[in-house]
């Protein structure tokens, strides 16, 4: 099976308090932030690796995992890290974040998919910076492929994937014919979430994503990493989303003590207007 | 206000910006990458190893730190069991390959810079200083075999030990032979097949037994029949827990038994064992190499690495304590700002706003960053010996000399200050720091042993004064003093740092003068003055070295800061570089002046501690 995994780098979500908005309010200030792969995309990569191996012998890849990201030269580090954890090849589409929106990424990915012809496109359900949750759905629509979003489990079948989707109140199971687009949720990296045809159903993975081992880090330098111009993928680089301004969420106001229940109800009714 | 502590929560963190600064801005690791012995390494690989090893430390080792402390090790049926999770962590560590970064490719390593090995060892030591003892000692034992073993021994032991299949220890101490290694009584009797029957008892053996690896390779110091008394007659032996066959498979047990494990103040996850060799005359060892009575010099080589690792443990745990205290100080609100001290209704502020808390934080920051820089300085010298080997032997000797000179400083100052930083971290928390909901009390207990094992810090001071100062006819010390003097000369007019650099110049002179004084005591037969003053001298030299490296960092930071684009997109970089400046100024103006004072004190030759009679210490 050949899988294309779309990865985005985001400002370290553990340091969200360092994200600043300059007084001009015209952008988000990303200087000095540590960059990390979007966690949901890391889970997508882990799922892709699990789908292309026998869980007992994870060093041998059955099929191919190609990772792609959109970003400047520095984002190659994100790709190298993905290669070190087991991906076979990487593609960087050379562009900066401010020239992108979800629709444009989906258009460019469509062109890449037509070139690469993967059986599956995997990505996180959303990136934790913008939380747009659009690219997977848009891409499936543009390709006219089956789609399963918020995957919590994936089981490979002949020519199809059985995908357990996170829905309100439980997990809904869908069978999608290949080729397909699947976006993954948090629980996809639980020990028994993903099974290729080769992996025994009794196998249990370590919880979470795998670590890059030292020999693999050293070997990752020799794996191919191609650069592609955005213009080579789509002639239409227009943006559908225009940002007009940024402001931080309002600071929390100090609380007050209410006299009694009647006072509380009155305030909820008249001041907060929630009743 | 405290919830029940979650024992499995990772509390470890490191400042990766600081790591990048040290590796690439101050110590310019990239200058030796991509060529010579480090051909396969580029800055990207270094950065990836740093990132991944940090992640590993936080996700695998950190969550076991408090668990290991509370659970400890147990001895059951002659076998030591490590705390829950240690064995799995051991397997993951070796699967990931983190112990083999700088090991020879021939034996399964990646041949990377020692500087990188030490950088990631700091993460692992800080995340779990008890756990790292097991792989750390295995690594050290393997290094000795690599340096002194026969080809057959290297072939047989190195891959398995670097790869984590077998563990390793170093066995020196005996009940009557601690710092006085020469009184070892363990014996080795040559057998007809060229091997030796080993008999004796060793104590305080870290990782002397454990359940992480299928076998443990002990390096045991013992005396062959008719060998001279004292340290000259000691030889080093490879003594496996389980005998091994030529193909690496395991044979029968080798009569190495665990008498007991110690109950300690800290590093409870590390099994400290009493080991009995040959109680039933069935313990067989082989000599390391082929020549008897070389044990001490071989052991010294192992101890060099082990001593660096102990100084590193000090700074690693101290750094974790500092960063945790900082987080707490930024969060915990208590009292109004001193500027509003008369106003009872003034808003409460985070304790980081209080001057004394800021003093403690900056004190911790300067010691942690300064000692870390000293360690990287040392490892960078070591890497240079590898780069220059066979190309410029004279320069290589200079670098090796600096390694030798700095080892006792790193070990002793790193461990002493590490403990003190942990204590300051507790003080920063106040009462919260004293209770087990927060990690700093464990850090403090764990850190105490660092000044004791691998040669107490007084042994380090005597190594510095008795061996290192005179090494190569004093050239190592002259090299060090010359490097500091050159920095002073180049920077004493610096607009921001000049005043502090002058202080450094005076400290350098005080160190040089005191070194001469020590030499004078040797020559004038005032021998007891030497050990009486050695620790203080080591501290003087360490403070001088640390101040030098902090000022060097500040200068680099100020230069880099000037090149930052104006505007607030550089705010966090500017804050980082500003921090470097204040750190250096604080240390140079508040700590470094002790060096001058120490020189003056030693100049008075006060010998009260020698003159007081043993009876006069107390009447009980």
TrEMBL record, chain A:
GO terms for molecular function: electron transfer activity. Residues 25-237 form the Electron transfer flavoprotein alpha/beta-subunit N-terminal domain. Pfam families: ETF (PF01012). Keywords: Electron transport, Transport. SUPFAM superfamilies: Adenine nucleotide alpha hydrolases-like. Belongs to the ETF beta-subunit/FixA family. This is Electron transfer flavoprotein subunit beta. It comes from Chondromyces apiculatus DSM 436. The lineage of its organism: Bacteria, Pseudomonadati, Myxococcota, Polyangia, Polyangiales.
TrEMBL record, chain B:
Its EC number is 1.3.99.41. Pfam families: Acyl-CoA_dh_1 (PF00441), Acyl-CoA_dh_C (PF12806), Acyl-CoA_dh_M (PF02770), Acyl-CoA_dh_N (PF02771). The keyword Cytoplasm does not apply. Residues 480-612 form the Acetyl-CoA dehydrogenase-like C-terminal domain. Signal peptide: none annotated. Residues 170-277 form the Acyl-CoA oxidase/dehydrogenase middle domain. InterPro entries: Acyl-CoA_dh-like_C_dom (IPR025878), Acyl-CoA_DH_CS (IPR006089), Acyl-CoA_Oxase/DH_mid-dom (IPR006091), Acyl-CoA_Oxase/DH_mid-dom_sf (IPR046373), AcylCo_DH-like_C (IPR036250), AcylCo_DH/oxidase_C (IPR009075), AcylCoA_DH/ox_N (IPR013786), AcylCoA_DH/ox_N_sf (IPR037069). Coiled coil: none annotated. One of its GO terms (molecular function) is acyl-CoA dehydrogenase activity. Residues 44-164 form the Acyl-CoA dehydrogenase/oxidase N-terminal domain. Residues 293-464 form the Acyl-CoA dehydrogenase/oxidase C-terminal domain. GO terms for cellular component: plasma membrane. It catalyses: 3-(methylsulfanyl)propanoyl-CoA + oxidized [electron-transfer flavoprotein] + H(+) = 3-(methylsulfanyl)acryloyl-CoA + reduced [electron-transfer flavoprotein]. This is 3-methylmercaptopropionyl-CoA dehydrogenase. It comes from Chondromyces apiculatus DSM 436.
């Amino acid at each position: 099976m050949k899988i294309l995994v779309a990865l985005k780098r985001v400002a370290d979500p553990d340091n969200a308090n360092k994200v600043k908005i300059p007084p001009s309010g015209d952008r988000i200030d990303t200087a000095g932030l540590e960059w990390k792969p979007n966690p949901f995309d890391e889970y997508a990569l882990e799922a892709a690796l699990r789908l292309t191996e026998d869980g007992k012998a994870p060093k041998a890849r059955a099929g191919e995992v190609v990772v792609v990201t959109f970003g400047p030269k520095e984002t190659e580090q994100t790709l190298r890290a993905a290669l070190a954890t087991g991906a076979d090849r990487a593609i960087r589409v050379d562009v900066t974040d401010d020239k992108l929106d979800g629709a444009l990424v989906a258009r460019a990915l469509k062109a890449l998919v037509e070139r690469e012809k993967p059986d599956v496109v995997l990505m996180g359900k959303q990136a934790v910076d913008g939380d747009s949750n659009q690219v997977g759905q848009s891409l499936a629509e543009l390709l006219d492929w089956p789609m399963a979003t918020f995957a919590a489990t994936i089981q490979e079948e002949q020519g199809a994937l059985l995908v357990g989707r996170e829905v309100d109140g439980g997990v809904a199971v869908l069978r999608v014919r290949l080729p397909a687009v699947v976006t993954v949720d948090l629980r996809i990296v639980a020990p028994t979430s993903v099974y290729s045809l080769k992996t025994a159903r009794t196998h249990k993975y370590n919880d979470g994503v795998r670590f890059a081992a030292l020999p693999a880090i050293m070997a990752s330098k020799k794996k191919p990493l191609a650069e592609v111009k955005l213009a080579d993928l789509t002639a239409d680089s227009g943006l559908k989303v225009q940002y007009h301004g940024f402001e931080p969420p309002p600071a929390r106001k100090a609380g007050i003590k209410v006299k009694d229940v009647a006072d509380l109800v009155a305030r909820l009714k008249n001041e907060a207007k929630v009743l | 206000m405290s919830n029940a502590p979650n024992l499995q929560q990772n509390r470890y963190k490191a400042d990766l910006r600081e790591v990048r600064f040290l590796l690439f801005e101050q110590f310019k690791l990239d200058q030796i990458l991509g060529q010579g012995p480090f051909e396969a390494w580029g800055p990207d690989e270094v950065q990836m190893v740093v990132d991944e090893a940090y992640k590993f430390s936080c996700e695998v080792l950190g969550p076991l730190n408090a668990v290991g402390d509370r659970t400890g090790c147990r001895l059951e049926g002659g076998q030591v069991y490590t705390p829950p999770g240690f064995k799995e962590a051991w397997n993951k560590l070796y699967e990931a390959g983190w112990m083999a970064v700088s090991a020879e490719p021939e034996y399964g390593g990646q041949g990377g810079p020692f500087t990188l090995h030490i950088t990631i060892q700091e993460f692992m030591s800080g995340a779990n200083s008890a756990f790292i003892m097991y792989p750390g000692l295995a690594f050290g034992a393997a290094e000795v075999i690599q340096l002194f073993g026969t080809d057959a021994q290297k072939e047989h032991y190195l891959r398995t030990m670097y790869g984590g299949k077998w563990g390793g220890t170093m066995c020196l101490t005996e009940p009557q032979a601690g710092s006085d290694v020469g009184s070892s009584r363990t014996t080795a009797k040559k057998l007809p097949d060229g091997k030796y029957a080993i008999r004796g008892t060793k104590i305080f053996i870290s990782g002397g037994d454990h359940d992480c690896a299928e076998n443990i390779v002990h390096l045991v110091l013992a005396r062959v029949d008719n060998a001279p008394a004292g340290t000259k007659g000691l030889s080093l032996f490879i003594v496996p827990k389980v005998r091994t066959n030529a193909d690496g498979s395991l044979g029968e047990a080798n009569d190495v038994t665990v008498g007991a494990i110690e109950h300690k103040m800290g590093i409870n996850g590390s099994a400290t064992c009493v080991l009995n060799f040959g109680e039933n005359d069935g313990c067989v060892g082989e000599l390391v190499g082929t020549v008897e009575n070389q044990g001490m010099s071989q052991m010294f080589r192992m101890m060099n690495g082990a001593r660096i690792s102990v100084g590193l443990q000090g700074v690693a745990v101290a750094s974790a304590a500092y960063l945790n205290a900082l987080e707490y100080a930024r969060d915990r609100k208590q009292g109004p700002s001193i500027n509003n001290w008369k106003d009872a209704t003034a808003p409460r502020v985070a304790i980081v706003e209080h001057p004394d808390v800021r003093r403690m934080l900056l004190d911790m920051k300067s010691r942690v960053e300064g000692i870390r820089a000293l360690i990287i300085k040392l490892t960078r010298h070591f890497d240079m010996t590898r780069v220059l080997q066979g190309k410029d032997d004279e320069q290589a000797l200079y670098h090796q000399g600096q390694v030798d000179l700095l080892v006792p400083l790193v070990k002793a100052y790193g461990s002493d200050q590490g403990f003190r930083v942990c204590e300051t971290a507790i003080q920063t928390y106040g009462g919260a720091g004293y209770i087990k909901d927060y990690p700093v009390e464990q850090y403090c207990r764990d850190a105490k042993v660092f000044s004791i094992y691998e040669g107490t810090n007084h042994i380090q001071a005597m190594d510095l004064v008795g061996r290192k100062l005179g090494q190569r006819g004093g050239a190592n010390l002259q090299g060090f003093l010359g490097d500091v003097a050159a920095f002073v000369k180049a920077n004493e007019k610096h607009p921001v740092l000049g005043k502090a650099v002058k202080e450094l110049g005076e400290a350098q002179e005080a160190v040089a003068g005191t070194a001469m004084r020590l030499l004078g005591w040797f020559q004038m037969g005032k021998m007891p003055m030497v050990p009486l003053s050695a620790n203080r001298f080591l501290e003087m030299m360490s403070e001088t070295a640390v101040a030098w490296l902090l000022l060097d960092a500040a200068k680099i930071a100020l230069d880099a800061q000037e090149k930052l684009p104006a505007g607030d997109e550089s705010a966090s970089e500017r804050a980082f570089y500003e921090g470097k400046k204040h750190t250096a100024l604080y240390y140079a103006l508040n700590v470094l002046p002790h060096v001058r004072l120490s020189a003056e004190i030693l100049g008075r030759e006060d010998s009260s501690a020698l003159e007081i009679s043993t009876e006069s210490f107390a009447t009980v």
